[in-house]
User: Fold this.
Amino acid sequence: MEFRAAEVYERYLSRAIADPWTRVLLELASPQPGERVLDLACGTGSVARQVAPTVGVSGQVVALDINAEMLEVGRAQPAPAGASILWQEGNAIRLELPADAFDLVLCQQGLQFFSDRELSTREMRRVLPSGGSAVISVWQSLNQHPVYEALFTVTARLLEVPITAVDVAFSLSSPDELYTLLHEAGFQSIDITPRSLSIRLPEPERFVQLSIEGAATSVPAFASMDGTERLILVDEVRAKTHDIVERFRDGRFLAFSMTTNIAIVR
Assistant:
């Protein structure tokens, strides 16, 4: 059975990768009952759904993403306890939200995808009042993620494009660059901490297919391909990455570590 890209993202990438990382993000963010929270670049809503019970019915959660399909899939998931979630389509570089509207902005693996990172961080600052905070995570470098490094290196070669066209998720790996972005946006207190987690992805034999299908939600090089083109690419990449994928197989799962930089800013 085939799923749309956003459904693949939710069933495969969100549950196995985003959900455990959300728990780390919220541990560092320490949301409080009654707070107003913006989940920026929410995808299918892992962060929004997990923060809603913490801020409770007196709190507010807005889940915002540029991708209407991701929002549709997010809305279709079981509603959590606590705050109701307002799902909103919007662009991170031009938020149609009032100033000082939130106590906490959370952005998990979204900043690196924004078309203008400088404007988006300024927008994060604008919607926070004095005393508000933001917690933002971005993956560390591709060479620290050998399975994905193999996947994207082979893909770029087959598509005859630079690797930067396909490894967007890992394109903001420098903590210094992240610090500068946030400092220039007007944040005064910036603490960047590295974190690692062991990830277990189901269906190792479908890793290439599901990774490419899921990435089609946010990476133009994949999103612009039709279904047939994508399947041809998947078959070619699977053959060329088989050995390294098998190296990380643990029974019915792929098991590997992922590392991220998480910025806590005020």
The mean pLDDT is 95. Residues 5-265 form a domain with the Rossmann fold fold (CATH 3.40.50.150).
